[in-house]
């Protein structure tokens, strides 16, 4: 009976650790996805700024060239 109790406690601990790790991994995955979205948004903003600078540069070139 004592062995059964010890095994049951160990199984309960293993299940608890598994569930905690799965929750942490899930939260990390959500944070990574949010980071990727933020990086994409920043890249698009940077691309838009570069395009604006290129447009300004070409609009300011004199026609005599």
Automatic annotation (TrEMBL):
Keywords: Membrane, Transmembrane, Transmembrane helix. The chain crosses the membrane at residues 6-24. This is Uncharacterized protein.
């Amino acid at each position: 009976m004592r062995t059964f109790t010890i095994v049951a406690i160990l199984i309960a601990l293993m299940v608890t650790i598994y569930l905690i790790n799965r929750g942490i991994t899930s939260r990390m995955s959500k944070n990574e996805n949010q980071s990727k979205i933020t990086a994409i948004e920043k890249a698009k903003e940077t691309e838009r700024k570069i395009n604006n600078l290129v447009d300004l540069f070409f609009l300011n070139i004199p026609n005599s060239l």
